[in-house]
Specification:
The chain is mostly helical. The chain is 68% helix and 0% strand. It has helices at 2-13, 17-28, 44-60, 72-89, 95-124, 126-154. The longest helix has 30 residues, at 95-124. The relative contact order is 0.21.
Length: 173
């Protein structure tokens, strides 16, 4: 469930990139086992759409005309996408709690990251601070999704099917 909160925090910085990462993972079959992701999330059209929208968000964020993330439509987008991504990283039987954690994390991080970005922009400008924020968010999102899947696989019984082969064991003398 911790990953649900973390993906929501990343979603507070950018509404669509964490959702796109979770959609890509769903499409590749690399979400945690027995996850709460909506079935449609891994659909190729959903994946393409979320990736395209995330790329547009990353580019548009650097424009002077970009609206603040803390206006109602920006907050609503973050809450909804944080909830979907949070549910996808939670166990199926806890998907609603994962959604709530993802949404809450996104809402809190929207305000925290907005304040941090405004302070940084006064000294470093919009584009450079946006690029740094993008790098932090993208790296965090990639790690969160990968770690959630890795931890899920490590908790399976040895006889359960795995997405990746089990590590080779060293042979002693």
């Amino acid at each position: 469930m911790f990953h649900s909160l973390l993906i929501g925090l990343a979603g507070g910085m950018r509404a669509l990139s964490p959702l796109a990462a979770v959609a890509l993972a769903a499409h590749r079959g690399s979400l945690p086992q027995n996850n709460g992701a909506p079935a449609l999330l891994g659909n190729p059209l959903v994946v393409a759409g979320t990736v395209a929208l995330a790329a547009g968000e990353l580019l548009g964020d650097k424009l002077p005309s970009s609206p603040d993330r803390i206006i109602v439509p920006g907050l609503a987008a973050r809450v909804v996408t944080g909830a979907i991504a949070g549910a996808a990283l939670a166990p199926r039987e806890q998907q609603y709690a994962g959604a709530a954690l993802g949404a809450a994390g996104a809402l809190a991080a929207a305000f925290l990251s907005f304040d941090a970005r405004m302070a940084a922009m006064r000294r470093h400008g919009q584009t450079s601070t946006g690029l740094v924020e993008d790098a932090v968010m993208l790296a965090a999102t990639a790690w969160i999704v990968a770690d959630a899947a890795r931890r899920s696989r490590s908790q399976l019984p040895a006889s359960a099917p795995r997405l990746l082969p089990a590590p080779a064991r060293a042979h002693g003398p």
